[in-house]
Amino acid sequence: MEIRGTLDLRKRQVLIFLVLLGLSRADTESAHYSVAEETEIGSFVANLARDLGLGVEELSSREARVVSDDNKKYLHLDLLTGDLLLNEKLDRDVLCGSTEPCVLHFQVVLENPLQFFRVELHVKDINDHSPTFLDKEILIKISEGTTIGTTFLMESAQDLDVGSNSLQNYTISPNSHFYIKIPDSSDRKIYPELVLDRALDYEQEAEIRLTLTALDGGSPPKSGTTLVLIKVLDINDNAPEFPQSLYEVQVPEDRPIGSWIVTISAKDLDAGNFGKISYTFFHASEDIRKTFEINPISGEVNLRSPLDFEVIQSYTINIQATDGGGLSGKCTLLVKVMDINDNPPEVTISSITKRIPENASETLVALFSIVDQDSGDNGRMTCSIQDNLPFFLKPTFKNFFTLVSEKALDRESQAEYNITITVTDLGSPRLKTQYNITVLVSDVNDNAPAFTRTSYTLFVLENNSPALHIGSVSATDRDSGTNAQVTYSLLPPQDPHLPLASLVSINTDNGHLFALRSLDYEALQEFEFRVGATDRGSPALSSEALVRVLVLDANDNSPFVLYPLQNGSAPCTELVPRAAEPGYLVTKVVAVDGDSGQNAWLSYQLLKATEPGLFGVWAHNGEVRTARLLSERDAAKHRLVVLVKDNGEPPLSATATLHVLLVDGFSQPYLPLPEAAPAQAQADSLTVYLVVALASVSSLFLLSVLLFVAVWLCRRSTAASVGRCSVPEGPFPGHLVDVSGTGTLSQSYQYQVCLTGGSGTNEFKFLKPIIPSFQVHDTGKNMGEIENFRNSFGFNIE
After folding, report:
1. 254 phi/psi in degrees, rounded to 5
2. Structure confidence by residue, pLDDT tens digits, 586-600
3. What are the residues facing 797 on neighbouring strands?
4. What is the mean pLDDT of residues 187-211?
5. CA-CA distance, 590 to 562, in Å (whole number)?
6. End-to-end CA, the chain
7. Judging by DSSP bridges, how do beta strands 65-68 and 102-110 pair with one another?
8. CA distance 718 to 711
9. In this predicted structure, what is the pLDDT of residue 444?
């Protein structure tokens, strides 16, 4: 194997290659190699990496490959070594026929950047064919009167080899009448002629058989033989003559089989059998004999097999006219095949990429070549793809094109493109070829998960069971595959004191939220936290949403009586003068409810009384008042049971027991009741309890004020803490209407608290309002007015 070209030429080529490498993606430099035909598959041709000045690693990284003009894989490039190897046995006679030199053209294609290198492979001929005669016997009729030196044309042998291995000489078997002469020819072919060396004598020898041998120039030479039968005829002194030596006809390649082409006619001045002419082809190749036929009598030339302009453009046919006396004349018929547009363009894909990432721009999708076997306008082509596609065609080298993406794609807008490459020739009618390519856009993680809402509000009824599903968040990702798989998580709370990890949890797969423990409205009315949604792309993208959980109040707290104390100590006794008017404030039952809203609306009802009708309780604020005038007949000691009930569902209640003692006036000493005259030690114990109760109420009141200020500063509404009565929101029920409009405890009353000392029993008493409320001064009014007065305060009288 050898590389053609001188050393100086090679240096100049390398220099040109280095200069133009950065200026053009297509390199027109050519490399020349040669190889003998019939060389075994896998034989070494050349080291392409060394000849092109490239490294082996560069050949592999740039996906080097060899592309032939006819798209046949004669050669194979080993990317590991850079060697150019034979991929199949080459038969020069099949590839090139009689054409010499036999050169195969290839392109070496490199990508990133795209480059082309021209490679020419010269296939050398070897002597692998023997000369052969198409006819096993050559018949020559020669008149006995033929003069010495007359030459007779003979059929030549066929040798598929070329050059020195082709046909070089002819020999004839030894005889006394003839020898072989090889004249010079314009087409450099060797045609044998039989030369008469001694006169023939029909009477002595009417038939002569000779052996014609054809020799090629191989080493060792090969030969072929045929039988030459010479029939000696009587004298015939006129040979056939054609009116012209050259006939030219044009035949379209779509002419049907059996069609008439031309009629060749010769004239012979002899008469009788010597004037009868027969027509034959001579020196005709196998292709001519397969394609045409001649009528030996009429000289008509007809089409025997289809014509193909793309295979053979013209035929040169030698026609011989032989008369009955054996004399012959010759002429030449030149048949020119006219091209028609019978071949559609061909598209050959060299490389193709069917999946490209969506964020890549100007990506090579396909490398292909187009070819049309026709000629002229029939072989000229245009190449195009559909409009409104983010792709374009770029011509590169000769008939090679690249299909390249125009810009970065968006898989979420369109995940698949169907590209149709249309190649149309300019013939008439126009023929076209279409090649479809489906390009899939692979996903890139360029979309973060998006929540269906920016914030979620969830409602949970207090006292819920642990692990209760309280709601869900949902996010979607426009990407696909793992890039669209979303996982959910709880983000660190902004409030560092919020124990979020012990309150809620989230299912990482579906976004379901669960309460981890039972919630208490009285301890925590609401809380906020953020949830994150993260995809599984690389790098991962995320988003977040705000979740607000509102705890709904349940009626789980019964009313609690602050006054009078119901702790099992000595009962509290209220003193009422017998001169008290109807509506006189005896005391006030003070109760609170730990719930909020409707569940904390309290109502009061006199459940039991020693003497029904004497006392009444206001339903909305728990004030105990006299319902009528007292008399001497009324018992001195009274026991009242007041029911305190909230407005929840179901309602909860508590009771308070009051002891009322009727006295003639506060100036007379109070005599302890017989059953309520405890020992001095019990009195001291009661005093301690009362002090503790007072301190508790004061602390609760102070705490309520502080909570109210804190809530006001934060501009959030909150339920009243334990120690304050809840102010109902919205319209108050009709049967619980507060005349002051401020809630359970009327703010229009302030009470003085005193502890009595001395030998008597110490008591915690509400003596009287500092600002009297609705005292009745006119004792002379009738009982009807008193009854109206009592009803106007909403007394609930047992």
Report:
1. -95, 15
2. 899 999 988 888 888
3. 616
4. 86
5. 5
6. 130
7. antiparallel
8. 7
9. 87
